[in-house]
Amino acid sequence: MRSWTTFFTLLVAGAAVATPQEDAAHAVMVRLLGSRAGKFSFKQIPSDNRLDRYSVLAHSDQVTIQGTTSVAMCRGAYDYLKEACHCLVTWDGDQLKLPPHWPDFRRDSGVNPNEFRHYFNVCTFGYSTAFWDWNRWQREIDWMALHGINAPLSMNGLEKVWQTVWRGYGLTDEQIRAHFVGPAFRPWQWMGNVDSHGGPMPQSWIDHQAQLQQKILDRELSLGMRPITPAFASFIPEAFAKSLAPSRVRRSSGWAGFAPTYMLDPRDALFSEIGAKFIGEYRHQYGRTSSLYLSDVYNEMTPQVASATKLEDLKEIAQAVHHSIKLGDPDGKWVMQGWLFTNERSFWGDPEVSAFLDAVPDDDMLLLDLAAEVDEIWRRHASFRKKPYVWNLLHNYGQNTALSGDLRAISNKPARALTDPDRGRLSGMGLTMEGIEQNAVVYELMTDMMWRTTPVKPEEWLAEYGVQRYGSSSDAVRKAWSQTMGGIYLGQTENESAAYTNRPKRTGVAEPGDEILDTRRRVEALLALPSNVHSSPLWQRDVVDLAKRYGEQAVRIAAYQVVNSISSHDAAATKRSRADFDRVMGLIDQLLASVPQHRMDRWIAAARATVDALDKRALEVNARLQVTVWGGPILFDYAAKEWAGLVSDFYRPRWNRFFDALAAPDFDDARFEADSAAWELKWTSSRSPVEVGPSIGAETATRALLVGAKSLEPTQSDPGIAVNRPVTTDAEAEPGHDPTCITDGRSSGRYWASGPGPHWVQIDLGFAHRASKVQVFPFVDGKRYYQYTVQTSTDGKAWTTVADLSQNKTPSTRKGTVHEFAAAMIRYVRVNMLFNSANPSMHLHEVRVFR
Question: Cα angle vertex 633, ends 630, 639, to 5°?
Answer without folding.
Answer: 30
